[in-house]
Amino acid sequence: MKHEAEARRVLVVDDDHAVRDVLRRYLERSGYEVDLAEDGETALRLFAEREPDLVVLDLMLPGVGGLEVCRRVRDRGQVPVVMLTAQGEESDRVLGLEIGADDYVVKPFSPRELVLRVGSVLRRSRTAPAGARESLVDGALRLELEARRGTLNGVELALTGREFDLLAFLLRNPGRAFTRPELLEAVWGWNFGDHSTVTVHMRRLREKIEPDPARPDRISTVWGVGYRYDAEDS
């Protein structure tokens, strides 16, 4: 188990040596420990050996592809994943989010922007909000904020970091309709971005907390606006 005083470890996976080297330098300057992998096989081996706190993952990899690496990383736990995608690869980006990636950056990108995204994802995945010792409860659905643990009918939910943050935000604001841009800013901290990110995460949440995701009871679509959480206990 890692202590808070230890430097956060980031695994950077990209088959472009120049990209790996630039990201390594920028991340190390920001105080991170960095491991590098040029293909999917190496990435999975280093992930198992080094236990990184976050993975920066290019989708276009030789051998085991980025989407498969993301899937296997997600199967092994809740380590955050920030995807690197090329311009125009929207379908792969959406699929990566559906598999469970927490964030994405489109190439070509600013290394400083990526370091900021890494910091934002890590803070959200590790830092409990004010009042975190309390739980958010709606019927059989319960979120323990300090432990970042969700349960439904006593069974633990396999929530990614972003899914947890989104569900916590909805539970704090029942009965109010939010637009996708509002949710992007409130949960992701973005004042711009691809609105499909919200759509994908809402779909994944419905699959995990709704008895019938096609006819949701809790997360309602408000046509022409966005989404609203309808609390069972209201």
TrEMBL record:
Signal peptide annotation: none
Where the record annotates domain Response regulatory, the positions are 9-122
Q: Could you tell me what this protein is called?
A: DNA-binding response regulator, OmpR family, contains REC and winged-helix (WHTH) domain
So where does this one cross the membrane? none
InterPro entries attached to this UniProt entry: CheY-like_superfamily, OmpR/PhoB-type_DNA-bd, Sig_transdc_resp-reg_C-effctor, Sig_transdc_resp-reg_receiver, WalR-like, WH-like_DNA-bd_sf
Question: Any idea which UniProt keywords this protein has?
Answer: DNA-binding, Phosphoprotein, Transcription, Transcription regulation, Two-component regulatory system
For this record, an example GO cellular component is: protein-DNA complex
GO terms (molecular function) for this protein are:
phosphorelay response regulator activity; transcription cis-regulatory region binding
Gene Ontology process terms (BP): regulation of DNA-templated transcription
Superkingdom of this protein's organism: Bacteria
Q: Which residues carry this modification: 4-aspartylphosphate?
A: D58
By its UniProt entry, which SMART domains does this protein fall under?
A: REC (SM00448), Trans_reg_C (SM00862)
The DNA-binding region ranges are: 133-231
Domain OmpR/PhoB-type, by residue range, is 133-231
